[in-house]
Design brief:
By secondary structure, the chain is of the alpha/beta class. The chain has eight helices and ten strands. The protein binds S-adenosylmethionine (SAM). S-adenosylmethionine (SAM) binds next to strand 5 and strand 7.
């Protein structure tokens, strides 16, 4: 899978690339490329945003800058999904992750301050995604959320068995995963359910299925 991110802060992604599962699949199942709008802007002094028409606070990411960046990298309109990360996008769920995981190639567009010139969303993007009903300072954390959610679906990203039985999975009927416990079996009078200490796999399995939320 190839994931391209257009951002103003490419170095913000350094942490993500050093962590599992992204680090595990990077350069193998995952090709992650980071592009700075500033490297492609046709404007002077590496300018990328401008004041909003109609007035008001904040700066808006310019459509000509994003178009120039996409053109430079792809040599024309991209032939794969281009997703604008914006609070106005469709809400991210595991179902959206599964849908996007089928794509071999995706481009994410990140903005900051007041956000995108609307023409970027309308004409340069094929989709818009919000990671939740709240406002963050820029689209880089949303891009990282998506990259992590997609990377852990790739072959080899997770240890065998840890990706199938988890919250929102088909295996759990889309429900939330059952509770987990580890040592000590008793702490401050808080004890682990006896069945989990029984060694009886059938009973453990039944208990876990009962406790899917
Ligand atoms: C401060 S926000 C802009 C908020 C915008 N003025 C509004 O009121 O909806 C700057 C950028 O952060 C990103 N962003 C913020 N919250 C987001 C969210 N919940 N999902 C996806 N992207 C988000 C988007 O790229 C957005 O353009």
């Amino acid at each position: 899978m190839q994931l391209d991110v257009f951002t103003l802060i490419p170095h913000a992604f350094a942490w993500l690339t050093e962590q599992r599962p992204v680090a595990t699949v990077l350069g193998d199942e995952l090709d992650l490329r980071l592009f700075s709008y500033r490297d492609y802007t046709p404007l002077r002094a590496r300018q990328v945003d401008d004041e909003p028409y109609g007035g008001g606070a904040g700066m808006v990411l310019r459509v000509d800058v994003v178009a120039a960046a996409l053109e430079a990298v792809y040599g024309g309109p991209p032939q794969h999904p281009v997703i604008a990360l914006t609070p106005q996008g469709r809400q991210l769920t595991q179902a959206v992750v599964e849908e996007l995981a089928l794509e071999p190639r995706i481009t994410f567009l990140s903005a900051r301050f007041e956000g995108f010139d609307e023409r970027i969303v309308e004409h340069l993007s094929t989709d818009a995604v919000s990671i939740g009903p709240y406002v963050l300072s820029n689209g880089d954390l949303p891009a990282m959320v998506l990259i992590d959610a997609l990377a852990r679906r790739l072959p080899g990203a997770l240890r065998e068995g840890s990706g199938e039985l988890e919250s929102f999975s088909e295996e759990l009927g889309g429900g939330l995963e059952y509770p987990h416990y580890t040592r000590p079996a008793e702490f401050r009078g808080w004890s682990v359910p006896d069945v989990l200490l029984s060694g009886d796999h059938a009973r453990v399995d039944a208990w876990r299925r009962e406790h899917v939320r």
